């Protein structure tokens, strides 16, 4: 009975990765690049994003300190498979205009006990599993492009060209 049910399910649905979405990525490889991320950005092109590359698998943390854009975030495993997607809210009004953080070197303008640091720390997103990468895109991007858990992100660091191989579940 179980074998017949499994066979029937396999006949009804087939999964492939034939659907591709092109991307243009920037890479945050160093600790400084990962820390600064997309701070101060006022816009991103439709299929532009930033890929955070961690030196080893880890419980990754992303926060929206000094960001102007709401973003979508995907945590990826070592193979580039998406295992979590989150929406991130920017709160630019929580930043002090007299202490603009325009570069990594400006971060000490906000000491660790600053209320803004405390606010953003409490709004941070942590991966539920060990992540090798994190991908930030415009807010709603993953939903709008029907990207979901299990889809693959493939990239070339030299060119910045990338694409998402979206699972394509079709009925026969």
What is the tally of helical segments? 4
Question: What is the rounded distance between the termini?
Answer: 22 Å
Q: pLDDT below 50 for ≥5 consecutive residues: which ranges?
A: 1-17
Work out the helicity level. Answer: 10-25%
Shape: globular
CATH class: Mainly Beta
As a percent range, the share of strand residues is 35-45%
- What is the average per-residue confidence, as pLDDT, rounded to a whole number? 89
- Chain oligomer state: single chain
Q: Describe the biggest sheet?
A: 7 strands, mixed
Write the CATH architecture name.
Sandwich
How many domains comprise the coordinates? 1
Q: Looking at CATH, which topology would you report? A: Jelly Rolls
Question: Please, what is the CATH homologous superfamily?
Answer: Protein of unknown function DUF192
Count every beta strand, where a strand is a DSSP E run of 2 or more residues.
7
Q: N-to-C SSE series?
A: HEHEEEHEHEE
Helix-strand makeup class: alpha+beta
| Strands side by side in the biggest sheet | 4-3-5-2-1-7-6
Rounded Rg: 19 Å
């Amino acid at each position: 009975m179980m074998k017949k049910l499994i066979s029937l399910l396999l006949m009804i649905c087939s999964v492939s990765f034939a659907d591709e979405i092109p991307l243009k990525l920037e890479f945050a490889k160093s600790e400084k690049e990962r820390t600064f991320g997309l701070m101060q950005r006022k816009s991103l092109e439709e299929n532009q994003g930033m890929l955070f590359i961690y030196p080893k698998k880890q419980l990754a943390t992303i926060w929206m300190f000094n960001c102007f854009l709401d973003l979508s975030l995907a945590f990826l495993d070592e193979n580039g498979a998406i295992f979590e997607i989150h929406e991130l809210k920017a709160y630019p009004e929580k930043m002090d205009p007299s202490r603009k953080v325009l570069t990594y070197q400006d971060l000490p303008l906000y000491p660790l006990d600053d209320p803004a640091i405390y606010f953003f720390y409490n709004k941070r997103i942590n991966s539920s599993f060990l992540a090798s990468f994190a991908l930030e895109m415009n807010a709603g991007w993953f939903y709008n492009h029907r990207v979901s858990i299990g889809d693959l992100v493939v990239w070339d660091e030299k060119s910045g060209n990338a694409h998402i191989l979206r699972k394509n579940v079709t009925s026969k």
